[in-house]
Amino acid sequence: MSDPFTCAAEVRLKPGRDASVRGRHPWVYRGALAGPLPAGPAPVRVAAANGRPLGVALPGGPGSLALRMVAFGDERWDAAALRHRLLAAARLRERLALDADAFRLVHAEGDGLPGLVIDRYGAVAVCQLFAPAWEPLLPAVLDVLACDLGAGDVLLRGGDGAGSAPAVVRGRPAAEVVIREGAVRYAVDLLGGQKTGFFLDQRENRRLVASLSRGASLLNLFSYSGGFAVAALAAGAARAVNVDASPQALALARRAYALNGLPADDAGFVAGDAFRVARALAAASERFGVVVVDPPAFVKRKADLAAGLRGYKDINLHAMRLVEPGGLVLACSCSALVGEDQFGEMLAAAALDAGRTVRVLARRGAGPDHPVSAFCREAEHLKAWLVAVN
Ligand SMILES: C[S@@+](CC[C@H](N)C(=O)[O-])C[C@H]1O[C@@H](n2cnc3c(N)ncnc32)[C@H](O)[C@@H]1O
């Protein structure tokens, strides 16, 4: 079998298109290439138009992203370099003292491994490959996971996360694992769950909401497996209502309630469209002390931006109407294409239409186990703004 780290060819960029790579930005779009990309998943050497070497990249697969840089300048790209980066990623997570046994071990560009995501759920590792070029490299990744990082069981999920059937590539992982965040436990469906099984990126925001919910009522819109509600109830929230379109997600939420000894009455789990449910709750004059709004990404392509921002405004307007005066909303967006400024403008427009005064208390994002390369801020996906509503 050929060495999956051996470069197949050299690819040159068009004149004047090498500045971002020289600035250690790992993405090269098709329009920047001087010629066609060789077929196949093998890495390529990347050079400027004048032949100056720029590094090594993995071909990006279909779509406009042509190359993902895995080595810049004269950095090496081989099994030792891959192992070094995986071990560095693991050391960083240890250093972070996350107080959780589930975390993102590898966050693609943020760990110098663009196109590769690995989440740990205790002894299980779930890999997501966002480019076919990672497939031949998977055995090398698995070796490090098993030999150096103690992950005996490994699952592979498609890069799109939701909907793609996972494959077991090593060991015999159980379909469900129980994870711990602080003293709170959650049920994770590794085979049928969304993303790699759990929204690990919201860990610190769950803790924030929990710390602000004592004695309060919580509305958890787009709840998935109930993460925010379970954290809040365990910290003394008076009641919580989880709303999600997926009955399977709500079943996982009920499992998490049981794991934490929390009473689960039917009123706390509403299967349905969050927009419609929010309207119905407002019509019934329901009010909450805290509302979490964490919808799926409404903007996946630039062309969706205007419609997506309307969706964010609409649901946040409902959330603001449902909050008691002096209450809190955690407004989230996992659309990387929505910038901070646009998100802030959207919240202001929602507040005006809701007839409420809104103050921004904290602008947060994903937890520190989701590092973002300073050279590639576009990879930053999650916005989670805590606002006070009067
Ligand atoms: C980003 S996830 C929420 C993650 C969750 N807050 C957590 O911390 O685990 C988005 C969720 O929205 C749900 N969803 C998608 N469209 C929906 C809709 N129109 N109404 C209600 N839920 C919806 C999905 O099933 C998914 O669970």
If helices are DSSP runs of H or I spanning 4 or more residues, what is the number of helices? 9
Return the structural class: alpha/beta
Bound molecules: S-adenosylmethionine
Give the class-level CATH name of the largest domain. Alpha Beta
Distance from first to last alpha carbon:
65 Å
Helix content: 25-40%
Please, what is the average pLDDT? 95
Number-wise, the strands total 19
Low-confidence stretches: none
* Annotated CATH architecture of the largest domain: 3-Layer(aba) Sandwich
Radius of gyration: 22 Å
Number of domains as seen in the coordinates: 3
Q: What is the strand arrangement across the widest sheet?
A: 15-14-13-16-17-19-18
Largest sheet: 7 strands, mixed
Q: What would you call the quaternary organization? A: single chain
CATH homologous superfamily (4th level) name of the largest domain: Vaccinia Virus protein VP39
Q: Strand share of the residues?
A: 25-35%
Global geometry: globular
Task: Walk me through this protein's architecture.
With 390 residues, the chain is α/β, with parallel strands linked by helices. The chain folds into three domains: 9-72, PUA domain (Archaeosine Trna-guanine Transglycosylase, Chain: A, domain 4, Roll), CATH 2.30.130; 79-177, RNA methyltransferase domain (HRMD) like (Transcription Regulator spoIIAA), CATH 3.30.750.80; 199-389, Vaccinia Virus protein VP39 (Rossmann fold, 3-Layer(aba) Sandwich). It is built from nine helices and 19 strands. It has helices spanning 19-22, 79-95, 138-147, 203-211, 227-234, 247-259, 274-283, 305-322, 340-354; strands spanning 9-12, 27-29, 44-47, 53-59, 65-72, 102-107, 116-121, 124-129, 153-158, 167-170, 176-181, 184-189, 217-221, 239-244, 269-271, 288-293, 323-333, 358-364, 383-389. The strands form four sheets. It has a seven-stranded mixed β-sheet with strand order 15-14-13-16-17-19-18, with helices on both faces. Strands 1-3-4-5-2 form a five-stranded mixed β-sheet. It has a five-stranded mixed β-sheet with strand order 6-7-8-9-10. A hairpin with a 2-residue loop joins β11 and β12 (184-189). The chain starts with 8 loop residues before the first strand and ends with a strand. The model has no long low-confidence stretch (mean pLDDT 95). Bound molecules: S-adenosylmethionine. S-adenosylmethionine binds at residues 194, 199, 202, 222-225, 227-228, 243-246, 249, 273-274, 294-296, 334.
